[in-house]
Design brief:
There is one protein chain. With about 290 residues, the chain is of the alpha/beta class. The chain has twelve helices and nine strands. Strands 1-2-6-5-4-3-7-8-9 form a nine-stranded mixed β-sheet, sandwiched between helices.
């Protein structure tokens, strides 16, 4: 009993600290003190020296570390949503093995989906062609029928279509956000966000009050590929942000599949480049299943 209480204290410290520090800072702190207890005893100059940060930033961290309101937020969050840390059994093991893994995940919905055996990310351009919906139906229906979990980023375009088709076919959907739950983006997908949180899982590494920032979306992409066994690119332009997810999937040692299309469409140029660079060309879901028998 005493051990479980102590572990809970460590968890709460980690959740609190993750609201104040970068993952690099948390890693340095963890390596020095896995209980995250000593940091609360340091003075602002000592915090500045330990992290090699400005005195202004150190003062801010010190004040927030000892703020009752921040501790209240940690308690509130765990009442409103499921908060998973690296210390928890529920934390997806596959994320522990990616470069720069998250320390804390905020979840709404069925966290058991993170432990399914067959998970694939389905991604693509935010401005899909008229052919995109047909391509998605062609792949998602058989994936859902084989009980694969479909992951995407709830963005405009391919992401949204992939989520909607997954739900429409009775499938399991995971959406990964680039913001906190209280500042959902894009707002036009709020209804879809609510549907996935009820029927699937929505997750983010950002605390609820965190507004979306441009750099969050490339960061979020490493989680999309990280929880997946493979990544399927439906459409992508030559300089699409989709290719960031592909790069991260390859760095993580994951399979990457690309759907070919007309050479006259800019939305297929990225896929063709991926195929030239070694991604597997797929014409149906069976091409994917063949690699996971």
């Amino acid at each position: 009993m005493k051990g479980s209480v102590y572990l809970e204290e460590i968890r709460n410290r980690l959740i609190l600290l993750s609201r104040l520090m970068t993952r690099r800072m948390l890693t340095k702190l963890h390596d020095d003190d896995p209980t995250y207890e000593n940091i609360f005893r340091l003075t602002p100059p000592e915090i500045s020296n330990f992290f090699s940060i400005s005195s202004q930033k150190a003062n801010f961290i010190y004040e927030r570390l000892h703020s009752p309101s921040l501790k209240d937020l940690v308690i509130r969050d765990q009442k409103l949503m499921t908060v998973i840390t690296r210390l928890d059994e529920e934390f997806p093991a596959q994320l522990l093995h990616i470069p720069d893994p998250p320390y804390v995940l905020y979840c709404l919905g069925n966290i058991a989906l993170l432990h399914e055996k067959r998970i694939i990310s389905v991604i693509g351009t935010r401005k899909p062609s008229q052919e995109a919906f047909g391509k998605l139906k062609h792949f998602i229906r058989p994936l859902v029928e084989k009980d694969w979990v479909i992951v995407s980023g709830l963005a405009y375009g391919i992401d949204s279509l992939a989520h909607r088709l997954t739900l429409a076919n009775g499938g399991k959907a995971i959406a990964v956000l680039g913001s906190g739950f209280f500042h959902f983006y894009p707002k036009e997908n709020l209804r879809l966000f609510e549907q996935i949180s009820k029927k699937g899982l929505v997750m983010t590494e950002y605390p609820p009050e965190q507004k979306p920032r441009k750099y969050h979306f490339p960061e979020r992409n490493r989680l999309i590929s990280g929880i997946s066994m493979a990544t399927l690119v439906i459409e992508a332009t030559e300089k699409s942000g989709t290719l960031i997810t592909v790069d991260q999937a390859l760095e993580q040692g994951k399979e990457v599949y690309a759907v070919p299309g007309s050479p006259l469409l800019q939305q297929t140029v990225g896929c063709h480049k991926l195929i030239q660079d070694g991604a597997k060309l797929v014409i149906n879901a069976e091409d994917i299943f063949a690699d996971f028998k």
